[in-house]
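Supplementary Methods S3. Complex input for the iron/sulfur cluster-bound model.
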Amino acid sequence: MIGIIRKGNQILRVGVDQQRCDSSGVCVVELPQVFRFQEGSKKATVSMAEIPARLEQQCWEVARKCPTRAISITCCENDS
Ligand code: SF4
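Predicted complex, serialized as C-alpha cells:
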C-alpha cells in the first residue's frame, strides 16, 4: 500500500519497495503506527492510506534508517 501525507494542497507518497526490503524490521519497530509486516512475505508495508501530517518527520527519519533504502517518500504532487 502507498500512504499519503497531505501538506496543504500537496501530497507526499510513502511506500516500501518490496524487492529491496530485507525484513530487518527497523520501520516496524520505530514507527508501528505507519509500517507493519505483511502476513506471509514478512516484507514491510505501509498500513494506512492517510498518514497524519504529524508523523511526517518520523517517516523521513525511518526512511533514512532503513538499511536497504527500501522506503520511498516522493515529494510532492498537487492534490487536485
Ligand atoms: S526498515 Fe527497510 S528493510 Fe527493514 S523492514 Fe522496513 S522497509 Fe524493510
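The mean pLDDT is 94. The first helix runs from residue 26 to 30.
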